[in-house]
Amino acid sequence: MPADEETFDVVIVGSGGGGLIGAYAAAARGLRTVVLEKTALLGGTTAYSGAGLWFPGSAPIRRAGFEDDADATRTYLRDVVADSSREPLQDAYLRTAPRLIDELEQNPIFGEFIHMPVPEYFAASPGASPTGHSVFPPEIPIAELGELAELIRRSIPEERWGDLEGPTFSGGRALIGRALKALLDTGNGSYRLETAMTELVVSDGRVTGVVAVKDGIQRTFHATRGVLLAAGGFEHNREMREQYSPVPLTGEWSNGAPENTGDAILAGRAAGAATDLMDEAWYIPGLVWPEGRPVFHSGTRGGIYVNADGERFTNEAQPYDRAGHAMVRAELTTGVSHTRNHWVFDHHQLERDGMGSDPAGAVQPEWFSSGALRKAETLEELAELIGVPPQALRKSVEEFNGYAKTGVDERFHRGETPWDRMLSFIVGYPAHPRQNYIVPLPADLPNPLLIPIDTPPYYAATIVLSDIGTKGGLVTDDHARVQRPDGTTIEGLYATGNTMAAMSGGAYPGAGTPIGSSLVFAYLAALDLAEAPPTD
Predict the structure, then answer these.
(1) 87-105 and 17-27 are packed helices; what angle lies between their axes, rounded to 10 degrees?
(2) Under the phi-then-psi rule, with left for phi > 0, alpha for psi from -120 to 50, and beta for the rest, what region is 337?
(3) Contact 172, 44 (CB under 8 A)
(4) CA distance 255 to 287
């Protein structure tokens, strides 16, 4: 065989959670498996995350002593997604998630996953759980990974600002580290870094390999069983974002891995695959930091969001994807820009919760010098600084302050759900998971999430419509097999994660749905590949 060709049983494109868990599951079953990674580091967007897995019925939830009603969870998922075409995917997901956790926990490298109570995101839907179904991987000492640790993509704070995480990896880095170590421990797994897929090899309608480029040289990776595409979405592909996004977005505000440009989706489509949900994303509010880029912002406990007209438009404390979708809906229905908004708050809020990664009151001067944070002694002066009508801003603040007195947010119902109430005692910055800390809000208020904005000076930061990835991609069946527009299967081709059209449709049911889906459907692909007859 030529030097620029290699043959494996399974070729996996992408090294996020789905790619590595799929690779481990295949290699653990004796299949020679290679992971192709476009960048110099492993982990993709998973490495940025807290690695929550929305896994109803799994062992960690039972170990934590929480009851788990399978019928109630299925009812909840059906109601939230509201798309009968996705029910087979949902059933496969709910059926497989517990089995996957059981298998991973049998390997000491993965350790025991941990359930942390995180309320479901749609509290009003039947079957919603106030404690949720989210499980997380245990931390792992960086020293335990040895040289492998240097291969793992770091967190956003470390990438952008040099904030070292050590001496342990947590969240997504822990999951990636454990999966990588387990994969290599099988003796059947390997990886290729800086190896970018350009196209799929198709023979008689079947996918039999991948063409990729490394060091400027085109290489072919043959797959005797099949190919799993787990290369993320197209969040940083400007052309695709402009083509499919319902509101003006180019991808520059995304918190997904910068190299996620839809390569695998385009290759799958070129091979005849159907696509769906291309106008959707895992939306989040993004707080613009001094260097000009946004970071995932969740858990707004004080202040309000106002749009370009100075008007409040949503419950700022609600789950992040719901807040992001609220921006999209408002943009589409009002004619007013909601992709860039203003977070307005007072000095009490700054003293209590701090700004960005800085705890209470310790705001670094670059927030002001860069213009990321504006400050004024009056609301009218603040309105002039941020370019909104002064009367509108004052009206929005006074209306909110009235709700603070009664404890009832009559317009947007802030502070009424289990998720909102969780924020009454936790300050969390997703970019800095180690800096989550407990700061109880005033107990003498009728609603601790409704705190008056009445103590000057006043401040405004910028909140933009960001995301943690797109969620449109290749259509699959309940075994992760990629489908053509006519419903037939493209033999030898599988997809998962944000390369796959999401099983949850346009909804985000609970913490850990994106990564949970990526792992489950990668695992289902591996199970199917293990049973597939090899090609020559």
Answers:
(1) 60
(2) beta
(3) no
(4) 11
DSSP assignment string, 45-90: GGGGS---EE-TT-HHHHHTT----HHHHHHHHHHHH--GGGHHHH
What integer pLDDT is reported at residue 431 of this predicted model? Answer: 39
| pLDDT at residue 6, rounded to an integer | 97
Residue 106 has what DSSP assignment?
T
Whole-angstrom Cα distance, residue 250 to residue 237?
7
| Burial bucket for residue 228 (CB in 10 Å: 0-12, 13-18, 19+) | buried
For every residue of 177-188, which 3-state class applies, written as one string?
A: HHHHHHHHHCCC
Using DSSP, state whether 71 is helix, strand or coil: helix
Is the alpha carbon torsion for 303, 308, 310, 315 positive or negative?
negative
Q: Name the pairing type of β-strands 217-229 and 489-495.
A: parallel
Six-digit token pair at 500? 């796959």
Structural element, H or E, at residue 22: helix 17-27
Tokens of 96: 């497989």
CA dihedral sign, ordered 269, 38, 104, 184 = positive
Q: In the numeric block, which tokens belong to residue 183?
A: 């994969």
Q: Give the chain's end-to-end CA distance (angstroms, integer).
A: 14
CA 258 and chain centroid, separation = 14
User: Which residues of the chain have a pLDDT value below 70?
Assistant: 1-3, 356-362, 425-443
Q: Which of 8, 1, 14 is nearest to 498 (CA)?
A: 14
Q: How many CA atoms lie within 13 A of 207 on its CB side?
A: 34
Strands (E) located in 329-398: 340-346, 373-376
Q: What is the pLDDT of residue 3?
A: 63
Helix boundaries (H) for 171-251? 171-185, 238-244
Instruction: Find how far residue 40's CA is from the centre of its chain.
Output: 21
pLDDT tens-digit map of 379-428? 999 999 999 999 999 999 999 999 999 999 999 999 999 999 888 765 54
